[in-house]
Fold this protein.
Amino acid sequence: MRKVPPSVTLREQINQTLFSEGLNSAQQETDLLSTLARLGLSYLLQQALEQEQEDFLGRGHYERRKTEGQELSAATATATRMPASKPPRARSAYVFRR
């Protein structure tokens, strides 16, 4: 499965519809126009949703956000966790006696 935004998929469908050959009748031309109008509106709405998501999350599609305690590795462009201090030792509720 490709990791592309849905708007790219819609754009590919629009291009495929535009550049398909073989319009034979007026009915096919009307169908083409309504299909292009539907796909165009879907594309505009998807673009708006993706932009709103990017603004809200502060990152792009399939991008990791840099958070506190993490740094981005230049070599792999992935987030790596910085080592934290030792976790506290768990204390047992039971006292063992000999």
Observations:
- The mean pLDDT is 76.
- The CA atoms of residues 30 and 36 lie 10 Å apart.
- Residues 26-57 form the longest helix (32 residues).
